[in-house]
Amino acid sequence: MSQQVFAYIIHKDGVVDDTALEMIAAAGKLDPDALVTAVVAGIGAELNAVCDEVASSFVEVWKINNEALAYVDAEVLRGLLVRILPKDSIVLVPHDHFGMDLAPGLSIKLETAYLPDAIGFEGIEDEKLKVVREEYSGQVSTHVLCDISNGAVITTRPGAFKADESKSASGKIVDKTGEAMEGDFPGGARRFLEVVEAEVGDVDITKSDILVSVGRGIDDEDNMEIIFDLAQAIGGDVSCSRPIVDAKWLEKSRQVGTSGQTVKPKVYLALGISGSFQHLGGIKGAPFVVAINKNPKAPIFQFADVGIVDDILDFVPELTDRINDLKSS
Amino acid sequence: MEILVCVKRVPDTSENEIEVNRDGTDIERDDLVYSVNEWDNYAVEEAIQIRDKVGGSVTVVSVGDEEAEEVVRREMAMGADKGILLSDDTFEGSDGKGVASIIKAEVEKGNYDLIMTGAQADEGAGQVGGMLAAMLDWPYASLVNLIEIVDDKKIKVGREIAGGNQEIYEIDLPCVLSIQTGINEPRYVGIRGIRKVASMEIPVHGTSELGIDPESVGKSGAKVKRLDYFVPELGEGAEILEGSADEIIDKLIEFLKAKGGIK
């Protein structure tokens, strides 16, 4: 591969995101000889600290330092990146809420191919990269060919590539601020105002040892009772996946996943949850996971320790009854 | 406010198990139930609510084959004023950029203030809205879960970010937004609602109406092409408990006791 590879580094409060080292691993899968340049935007001492840390893993670090980047707005950053990135480069960006905001438009502005949410790379032939993706919420996988002859913007799924922890580089830090700031400051039509923090709910599921988590399989709000009954029987708290919050059957503070809470229970019961990667991304600390789902192909069965293929509406009340019988006997 | 909402007809994953066909060229399409992409439905609901508040019109547009007309009509039954189908044999095999450029051609025929897409669809790409905005040089926000109309020049939007937090932006119109589920509660559409709009005309625009070079879209214009579908080699996965319902419950309770899952 003749092109330069870049990775956009996400950091928050001086902490480098896990995806940074995952993108090095991803680049290695693209081309074992790839020399990856990290691109880091931010401000002042915090930015310098992040660059120093990143330099231990990347051969080169491009720094964009400006007070307007204290909170990095994807619309602004896109305008700046277009000025510094070579036209035919391969640009890796994490497929998270920031990457999804930045990357599709970046590919248009760089006039390159766009390949979203890659979970694996399987080689390059005739300047076409073979990529593994998932469709239908992970129910099926696909191979996709991406023509990278004029470069590509590729978003990589967080957690899909095993981080390269070798820290074997001692990268050179290059200040690209001047080049990035040439011309009008971009992104003026969208102005960042504030971050509204999540509301704290009545139950803090991040502190629960046992979570009884409910998903779309519950089918109707009237059925929610069976979940609370089971939680009470085993002494757990009720959490949920996204569709339950969308339907307003539970408050947002009970949602497990990348856009909700990150939980670390000892035992996690996934009831009628198919197991999207966004949901699984919120489960940490390797709990014992029980999945109950009527679809034997649901991705949750790959993640769980123990699985039961059944309709939760039938199974859960029976389970609750038995546990209550045991306790009273 | 003139609002355009982009919708897609997709296999309904809540109604079907999606499986790969025998030779891996496609998913098994026999007996599939199709519906409007879930995210798009929230976008249409949001557009209707905005129109009802500040006036204007809602147009629903879909890139697809003739069967995509049914989802356009369904969204008109929800309350959208107009529907347009962007359909041409040469559109088949378009990648995200191809779809965005087809929609861009339609956008340029109109006078829209606001364009909405779903945050993602069946392929999980989440790409068309951001590409369309960049092609039009309009501002963009993805994963939008709040919209407030400030005046006819600007709006305030919330974006869903990690940990249940929300970024708030002010955006000038015209702009493009991708809509996250949960932003509203989409209204129910019954058979009667669909009957009401059954006779409304849905114009079909192809390459000639849109002034698109057929080579620039479809398979010929695509830089990204799907090779196959496959079922990945799975790890061992969960230990599936089998037996009678009673036996399964016994085994599960043993597991839960051992792992601290019953207090």
CATH architecture of the largest domain in chain A: 3-Layer(aba) Sandwich
Unreliable sequence segments of chain A: none
Number of strands of chain B: 13
Total individual domains of chain B: 1
As a whole number of angstroms, the C-alpha radius of gyration of chain B is 22 Å
Can you put this structure into words, describing what you see?
The complex is a heterodimer of chains A (329) and B (263). By secondary structure, chain A is of the alpha/beta class. Chain A is built from ten helices and 18 strands. Chain A has helices at 19-30, 44-55, 74-84, 97-110, 177-180, 224-234, 242-246, 277-280, 300-303, 312-328; strands at 5-8, 11-12, 15-16, 36-42, 60-65, 90-94, 113-118, 120-125, 128-135, 140-147, 152-156, 172-175, 190-196, 210-214, 237-240, 267-271, 288-293, 306-309. In chain A, the strands form four sheets. A seven-stranded parallel sheet of chain A has the order 7-11-6-1-4-5-12, sandwiched between helices. A five-stranded parallel sheet of chain A has the order 15-14-16-17-18. Chain A has a three-stranded antiparallel sheet with strand order 8-9-10. In chain A, β4 (36-42), α2 and β5 form a beta-alpha-beta unit. In chain A, α3 (74-84) packs parallel to α4 (97-110) and α6 packs parallel to α10. Chain A is elongated, with a radius of gyration of 23 Å. The model of chain A has no long low-confidence stretch (mean pLDDT 95). In chain B, the strands form two sheets. A nine-stranded mixed sheet of chain B has the order 9-8-7-10-6-1-4-5-11, with helices on both faces. Chain B has a two-stranded antiparallel sheet with strand order 2-3. With 263 residues, chain B is α/β, with parallel strands linked by helices. Chain B is globular. In chain B, β7 (140-149) and β8 (154-160) form a beta hairpin. Chain B has a single domain, classed as HUPs (Rossmann fold). At the A-B interface, α4, β7, β9, β10 and β13 of A face α3, α4, β7, β8 and β9 of B.
